Amino acid sequence: MSRKFREAAGTARTGSVRLAAAIRRRMRDRGGQLRSDAGMSTAEYAVGTIAACGFAAVLYKVVTSGAVSSELQQLVERALHARF
């Protein structure tokens, strides 16, 4: 092995050790214990997805209602007939 290769390998190894230590520090809670779960579980994803779909349905109903639809139509017509 050449000296440059050994130096580069040592630097990379040192960098990866530092990265691993930084990740471990981030994963500790305030008590110093490692957290067992750093993300959401499948059930939490399911509840989030259902909530997002419900919000989308309500938003769709609001946007396609008569009052909002006519206001949007008038807005587009005013924009198309605007003078520059």
TrEMBL record:
Pfam families: DUF4244
Highest taxon of the lineage: Bacteria
Protein name: DUF4244 domain-containing protein
InterPro entries for the chain: DUF4244
